[in-house]
Structure formats: C-alpha cells, structure tokens
C-alpha cells in the first residue's frame, strides 16, 4: 500500500517531500507534462515568463528554510518590499513584506522540490473513490492537491471530502504576457490595479526576473476572465489596451502570450490548513488558508506530516 498524491504543484510536492522523509511510500501523479501547477512558467521569446503567481512571501519559519535553500542555489531572490497601487489615474505605494521572485521562473522552485520524488507526468486521474482507490487502484491515502472544483470532479458526490468542497466559489483569471522592443514605462516593479474594469495586477517581468527585459504580465479581473472563458486569446485585446492606457505606452508589443486560469483564487479563506478524512481521502493546496504560494506549501507540508503520523500509528498498532 502507498500514498498517492494527485497534483504536482507546490502543495502536492511539499506533501510528498514530508512523506518520503518519513519513509512512507508515495507516488505523485500529474496530468500536465510539467510540474508547477499555478506556479506556471512559459518559455516565450527565449526567456521564462511567470504566468501564474506573481511572487511569493515568506513568513513561516519552515518555509523560510526552504527559501534559504533556493536562494543559496540561485533559484530565488528577494525582489521588492513595495508595490505600486494604481487607481483612478493616481499612483500610490503599498509597502509590505519582502516579495520574492525566481530568476528562472517560479516553476523552477517546484522542480527543485520534485527532485528524487517519484513523479509521473502526463497521467490524468479520473476518479478517487471509497477505499480509497485511485482509478480502481487501492491506496492507503489519496491526496488531492488542487483547486476545489478540480478535486470535486474526481470525487463521488456523497464523499465526505466532497462535502468540504461544495459551494465554494473561485475567481478566474487570464494572464497576458507581452514583450516590447524596449522599455517605455516607468519601473514599477509591479502594481495592484484597484477598481479597474479590466485589470487587477500588472508586473514588470524583466524587473522581477532581474534581466530588465521589456516584458509585462497583466492579470485580468474575474469578470473579464469569465467573459472570455471560451476564447481566452480574445482577452489580450482589452487587457493590452488597458495596460497601454494605464502606463502611457505608445508602441504595440512584439509578442503576446495568454494563459487562462479557471480557478485562479478562492473568494474566501479557510482557517484549516488541510483536510484528512477517516476514509483516507485528503485535500491540500492554497485553497486551505489564503491564496499564497507559502500557504500552499504549508498546507501540503502539514498534511504530509499528519498522514505520516497516521500511517506510523497504524503500523505500530499492527505490530
């Protein structure tokens, strides 16, 4: 018997790291051909561009140790402790915790977590049932590390885990990356866009990457993403028009790249960091807490520890 983790984002892999460290057999199944989840990085015009999360923060001491390892390896770097706030034609500042970025893209951090783990890519799971079983295969624990709506599609409607997920709404997002011949805007490095009908955030990807490439990534509002859910590429026109108006740009971009996130972020936080049912079905991710990379890591880490403890207690009881 083993533990199967479905989803190779930061939460799923953090869970698998804890299980492997405890000596628990674990397999990670990922339907995509790369790890990362919403820490997605695309290779566009010869460089990595982050299309999911814009940055990450560090508060948890355990996560700080992981980030220190990434920084030492050159995978992560402190970026900025102040973002701009754009609203109604004015520009303000939003000081806060240090935001971190990844020179090689956020996906490189998830790839580091996956080192030495048994991850099977391009493997789509269709059903997690009582037992638990994953597509008919009996397992000791099945971990679903993904947004609620995706997990719901895998579960029986009357499963206890499904009751934890029902009726929770998520906000969609469309990310539009664009590259120019030269930088025409004032350095941001990123900006929250308040009360805008099209935009929610604009990030200077060259600034956060550290190579000063003239590349911007804009995130749409949920309303724009919902309106273009059947044609995400069509959102590039209003999103880029809004970016040009907001930053006073005159030249058109040389290239664009679009990514649609149907479940960009939950509309409400949870207090609990994970779910581990008596039936052996578990849930983790940034939906368990607040929508942050650090939250997803913490959710998966704490779940992995809890699963290892449960299996260890069962083994001791059967000895």
What does the radius of gyration come to?
20 Å
CATH topology of the largest domain: FAD/NAD(P)-binding domain
How would you describe the oligomerization state of the chains in this entry? single chain
The chain-level mean pLDDT equals: 94
> Which sheet architecture does the biggest sheet show?
7 strands, mixed
Q: Report helical residue fraction.
A: 25-40%
CATH architecture of the largest domain: 3-Layer(bba) Sandwich
- Total strands: the figure is 18
- What is the CATH level 1 assignment of the largest domain? Alpha Beta
How many independent structural domains?
Answer: 2
The span between the termini is 16 Å
| Amount of beta strand | 25-35%
CATH superfamily of the largest domain: FAD/NAD(P)-binding domain
Largest sheet strand order: 6-5-13-14-15-12-16
- Given helix and strand content, the structural type is alpha/beta
SSE topology string: EHEEEHEEHEEEEEHHEEEHEHHEEEH
Number of helices in the DSSP assignment: 9
Low-pLDDT runs: none
Shape: globular
TL;DR?
With 319 residues, the chain is an alpha/beta fold. It folds into two domains: 151 residues, FAD/NAD(P)-binding domain, CATH 3.50.50; 143 residues, Polyamine Oxidase, Chain A, domain 2 (Alpha-Beta Complex).
């Amino acid at each position: 018997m083993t533990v199967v983790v479905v989803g190779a984002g930061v939460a799923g892999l953090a869970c698998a790291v804890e299980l492997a460290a405890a000596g628990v057999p674990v397999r990670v199944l990922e339907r995509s051909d790369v790890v990362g989840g919403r820490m997605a990085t695309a290779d566009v015009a010869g460089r990595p561009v982050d299309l999911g999360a814009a940055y990450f923060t560090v508060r948890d001491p355990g996560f700080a140790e992981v980030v220190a390892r990434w920084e030492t390896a050159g995978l992560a770097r402190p970026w900025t402790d102040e973002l701009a706030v754009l609203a109604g034609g004015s520009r303000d500042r939003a000081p806060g915790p240090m935001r971190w970025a990844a020179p090689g893209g956020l996906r490189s951090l998830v790839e580091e977590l996956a080192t030495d783990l048994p991850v099977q890519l391009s493997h789509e799971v269709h059903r997690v049932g009582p037992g638990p079983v994953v597509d008919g295969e009996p397992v000791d624990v099945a971990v679903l590390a993904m947004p609620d709506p995706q997990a719901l599609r895998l579960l029986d409607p009357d499963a206890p885990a499904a009751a934890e997920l029902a009726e929770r709404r998520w906000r969609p997002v469309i990310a539009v990356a664009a590259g120019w011949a030269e930088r025409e805007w004032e350095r941001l490095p990123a900006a929250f866009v308040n009360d805008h009908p099209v935009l929610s955030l604009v990030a200077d990807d060259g600034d956060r990457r550290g190579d000063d490439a003239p590349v911007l990534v804009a995130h749409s509002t949920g309303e724009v993403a919902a309106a273009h859910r059947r044609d995400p590429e069509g959102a590039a026109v209003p999103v880029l028009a809004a970016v040009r108006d907001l930053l006073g740009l005159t030249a058109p971009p040389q290239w664009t790249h679009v990514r649609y996130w149907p479940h960009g972020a939950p509309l409400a936080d949870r207090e609990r960091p994970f779910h581990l049912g008596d039936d052996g079905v578990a849930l983790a991710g940034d939906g368990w807490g607040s929508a942050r990379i650090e939250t997803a890591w913490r959710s998966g880490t704490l779940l992995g520890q809890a699963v290892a403890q449960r299996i260890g207690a069962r083994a001791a009881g059967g000895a």
